[in-house]
Amino acid sequence: MPLPCPHSASPLRRPCALLAVVAALGLALASGGCAEAIPEKVVLKPEGEKVEVVSEKPNPDLYVALGEVVGTASGVDKDAAYEQAKNDLRNQVSARGGTVVGIDNVDSKLQMGTRKTVVKLSGTAYKAKD
């Protein structure tokens, strides 16, 4: 059972309650308030090397869609960031059991406060029908 606040005589003056709210907010920001770092280098896994990147949807008679995948990377050189994002995308597809990925969208923007470009590739993962 929580201890009573010694300052709770007046409903307008509750510094203990205010302190609890501020502490909870601080803890929330410290534990999850920061965005996850965007990698500059993404190692292409052996399974990811087997994933083929295509610009058009594969034949639906031969392939089944597994769903959307996203690859992200950043770098000073936007072409290098694109290649690293593609590595991330291929790794994501292989983790889902896919062998082909069709890139549906390419988004790039400058990362605020840095000279880096963030590249985000969105696509659809596919695998051959059984």
Describe what this molecule looks like in 3D:
The chain is α+β, with helices and mostly antiparallel strands and 130 residues long. It folds into 2 domains: 1-34; 46-128, 2-Layer Sandwich (Translation Initiation Factor IF3). Helices cover 31% and strands 30% of the residues. The protein has 3 helices and 4 strands. It has helices spanning 15-32, 46-49, 78-95; strands spanning 52-54, 63-75, 100-110, 117-128. Strands 1-3-4-2 form a 4-stranded mixed β-sheet. The chain is elongated and about 50 Å long. Residues 18-34 have low confidence and may be disordered.
Short recap of the structure:
This protein has 130 residues and is of the alpha+beta class.
Helix content: 25-40%
Tell me the total number of β-strands: 4
The biggest sheet, with number of strands, parallel, antiparallel or mixed sense and barrel status, is: 4 strands, mixed
Order of helices and strands: HHEEHEE
Structural class: alpha+beta
Level-1 CATH class name of the largest domain: Alpha Beta
Shape: elongated
Terminal-residue CA separation: 60 Å
Question: Could you list the spans in which at least 5 consecutive residues all have pLDDT below 50?
Answer: 18-34
CATH architecture of the largest domain: 2-Layer Sandwich
Measured on Cα atoms, how large is the radius of gyration? 23 Å
Q: What name does the CATH topology of the largest domain carry?
A: Translation Initiation Factor IF3
Count of spatially separate domains:
2
Mean pLDDT: 82
- If strands are numbered along the chain, what order do they take across the biggest sheet? 1-3-4-2
Strand content: 25-35%
Count of alpha and pi helical runs: 3
Fourth-tier CATH superfamily name of the largest domain: Hypothetical protein apc22750. Chain B
